[in-house]
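It is worth pausing here to work through a concrete case rather than discussing structure prediction in the abstract. The textbook approach is simple: state the sequence, then state the predicted structure, then interpret. We follow exactly that order.
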Amino acid sequence: MKEAPAQVPAGATGRAARPAHVLFALVVVVLSYGLPQTMLVPTIGALQRELHTSAAAASWAVLSSTLLASAVLTPVVGRLGDRFGKRRVLLVCLGVYLVGTVGAAVAPGVGVLIGFRAVQGISLALLPLSFALVRELLPPARAPFGLALTAGLVGGAAGAGLLLGGVLVDYASWRWIFVVGSLLVVAAGLLTWVYVPADRPGVPGRPDLAGALVLTVGLVALLLGITEGPTWGWSSVGVLGLFGLAVAALLGFVAVERRAADPLIDMGLLGSRPLLVAHLGALALGGNQFICYVLVPRLAELPRAADPGGGFGLSGGFGLSSGFGLGGFGLGGFGLSVTGAALVLLPGTLLTLPASWLAASLERRLGSRIPLVAGLALAAVGGALLAVWHGEVVQVVLCYLVCSVGYGFAMAALPRLVNQASPSEHSGSANGVNTVARVLGGALGSQLGAAVVVGGGGFGAAFWLAAGVAAVGGWLALCAGPSR
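Step two, the predicted structure:
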């Protein structure tokens, strides 16, 4: 039987949009973000050589500049989507993203590349806008599957992107990563224009410029402190000053939002228990994900007998240039190439997507919080297994499989929880905050994990940290009240 298109309004072509076409377009939008992000991870060394720059500058070009920009832009863009229409704002974001991607492909030097990578920071906002559109445009019976698919792809694309990026760096040029990324963005924009219909107009109001400015100061100060902590020293005046500024600005943001007629983020909604559970769950998930995601490839690439006079650079998973050397700590790995390290992650990341599909069934049977609790519990178990069982490649592959099933459950659960707990007119900004919470958790987790390793605790202690973070997040979600 053919699928009836009448449940979704007309798209840009004037024809009735089919739910399958809408979902396909949004899947490509998510992939246009997910694949290029991890494709870039293997490029730091190549950028140093070809652009004649330092490891710190290359690290900023690969990820740190994008992280800072995305953390600031995502909640703002989410609110604009709620006000002006999520499809319209999504198309604008894809246009800006394309400019940044093409500019990065032809960048003549590292400074220009860092600038265009900051422009690409708008790409993170594609996720909350897509999640909100899935909620609004798909029939209620199809929306859980749509959320599971789009959210699961965020994690599922990680291993594939890392593998593809390694191959491109090894056999072509790092610039081809941006060429491939540009093609994905163009495809996402065309499919969105043709197949995604306009969503309902949002509630009118004036832009909350004061709130956006104070939030920008707070998030930039926080992330700069996390980024530069290993280099400047965690107890240095600069880092402590940044953290102090972040606390003051974020407290000021709460005060500004409570007085604003049209707040960037509704503080009353943010403080509701269901949304608080989702945001804390995202924070814990990000911490566990990126401790494992950063350290597993580093363990795989580390020589089997670490050179005491050498050192193995350990950068945070967001390009947070810790520059730690592991030589002298007696840490041995598997001696794999970048591509080989990606293959260690690949079996697990391939499980993320089917696991996210199972989350919808688990939710129908046991309640909306249970997939998040189960996902964080599995991530904790996987982290604990990695802590005691990481001596051989096959052990790490099997342990990461457990983690990845947990990631699939949790990633699918988060946008569903956010959409259930927020009204439609606030779903863009609510999903934006949740996405930023996971990014912040990942930024902090990756640096803490690196610090534990080079501080003498080793990989085992860092994986125990990952397990503990996920376990605390799962416990908080479990104790948060009724599932429905």
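Step three, interpretation. The CA atoms of residues 92 and 467 lie 39 Å apart. Residues 209-263 form one domain.
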